[in-house]
Design brief:
This is Large ribosomal subunit protein bL27. By secondary structure, the protein is mostly beta strands. The protein has no helices and 4 strands. A 4-stranded antiparallel sheet has the order 1-2-4-3, with no helix packed on it. It is rod-shaped and about 65 Å long.
């Protein structure tokens, strides 16, 4: 069995795209109902009044407002 791989077989060179998580709307911004406010993994932020929680823990607005 060879103890060196044949030439040109790079084992590195992979990278995954970022998940684009984070706050999407900040305080004072006008939003419409259904607008995504925060994309998150787990409930780092909990939903407050007039904010819903999606299956993937995304927070979204339930009404229009600021």
């Amino acid at each position: 069995m060879a103890h060196k791989k044949g030439q040109g077989a790079s084992r590195n060179g992979r990278d995954s795209a970022g998940q684009r998580l984070g706050v999407k709307r900040f305080g004072g911004q006008v939003v419409t109902a259904g607008s995504i406010l925060v994309r998150q993994r787990g409930t780092k932020f909990s939903p407050g009044h007039n904010v819903g929680l999606g299956r993937d823990d995304t927070l979204f607005s339930l009404i229009d407002g600021t």
